[in-house]
Write a structure and sequence with these properties.
The chain is α+β, with helices and mostly antiparallel strands and about 130 residues long. The chain contains four helices and six strands, in the order E-E-E-E-H-H-E-H-E-H. It has a four-stranded antiparallel beta sheet with strand order 5-1-4-6, with helices on both faces. The chain has a two-stranded antiparallel ribbon with strand order 2-3. Strand 2 and strand 3 form a beta hairpin. Helix 3 packs antiparallel against helix 4 (about 120-130). The longest helix has 12 residues, at about 120-130. The mean pLDDT is about 95.
């Protein structure tokens, strides 16, 4: 089964990362979330793929978030899931923007699917509220 997921990502130090076609961006240290959908083949196994990339067990980058997760200072702390519902844009819109227009949102009208906060608890609480 698929649905919507939000990765909670720690970035332990500031980084400048080239994000595919979005060019190079400065990422301050702190907490990020990336919200995506898992309705394709494999469903939520996509979350496992993201975790493998963050652990340096994969190299291939398909999505914007792969570039962030591929940085050595990035790690996936947890994932919040909503099974069977396509609430990707609603969740992404409810979170504080990381300021990178188009990140993870090339297939919708959202400004970004990447959120940022320097406080983990505040960001995680917002994710849990948004997933309902």
């Amino acid at each position: 089964m698929g649905g919507t997921y939000t990765l909670v990502i720690a970035l332990s130090e500031p980084a400048t990362i080239e994000v595919g076609a979005l060019d190079e961006h400065a990422f301050p240290a702190g907490w990020y979330t990336y919200t995506g959908s898992a309705f394709g083949p494999g469903g939520f196994s996509r979350v496992d793929r993201h975790r493998e990339l963050a652990r340096d067990e994969r190299e291939v980058r398909h999505w914007h978030v792969d570039y962030l997760l591929g940085h050595p200072a990035a790690s996936v702390e947890t994932a919040v899931l909503t099974e069977g519902e396509n609430v990707e844009c609603a969740v992404a819109s409810a979170l504080p923007s990381a300021g990178i227009v188009g990140f993870g949102a090339s297939d919708c009208d959202c400004q970004s699917h990447l959120a940022y906060a320097n406080d983990r608890r505040t960001l995680l609480a917002a994710v849990e509220r948004a997933h309902g």
